Amino acid sequence: MVIKTATFVKSSGKWQECPEPNMPEYAFIGRSNVGKSSLINAMMNHKDLAKTSGTPGKTQLINHFLVNETWYLTDLPGYGYAKVSKSIRKDFEKLITNYILNRKNLVNLFVLVDSRHKPQTIDLEFIQWCGESGVPFSIVFTKADKLKPNAVIKNIEDYKTELHKTWADLPEIYVTSAEKKEGCAEILSFIQTTNEFLINNSVTFDE
């Protein structure tokens, strides 16, 4: 997929305030400081489309971007650690949950996981929740350039081992590096193929 245009649409504090659900939508989520904004910028060939920050928990709203005038890319608040109060963190969790469960044009949720670490309970629990809730999702391992290749492979295999304890089949898995733009083309290819399938099967999201 060639990215011709990628523009910011709006930030929403409630899922009901999101843009009209009339186009396919692909959302990105992950633990705070997983490198979500950097990956989005790398995919879109745009240095400052999604705002990056050294402060975990910077994304606190649902941010929508319109890509190629045909589909939405959504940047969701991170789950887990963030330097905010417990009440605000609960608001984040409610915002995320309501969006994922109610956004009818959400085609796929990309769950970002930091490839530098061993399996984290919070990631495994979120992935499990997605499965139990019937949410279509893929797993995206980030920051693959920050470790030696063998170490990355080992961590990913450890995640697969943990997931296979409760999953017979695993979802699509992507290994990425925002800095080197690794994995970006594969994710965009998946989105393009899915969009073509929706068009060919006359799938619409309008009321």
From TrEMBL:
Keywords: Cell cycle, Cell division, GTP-binding, Magnesium, Metal-binding, Nucleotide-binding, Septation
SUPFAM superfamilies assigned: P-loop containing nucleoside triphosphate hydrolases
Coiled-coil spans in chain: none
Protein name: Probable GTP-binding protein EngB
Role played: Necessary for normal cell division and for the maintenance of normal septation.
Domain of life: Bacteria
Co-factor requirement: Mg(2+)
Family designation: Belongs to the TRAFAC class TrmE-Era-EngA-EngB-Septin-like GTPase superfamily. EngB GTPase family.
The UniProt record lists the keyword Magnesium: yes
Pfam families attached to this UniProt entry: MMR_HSR1
Gene that produces this protein: engB
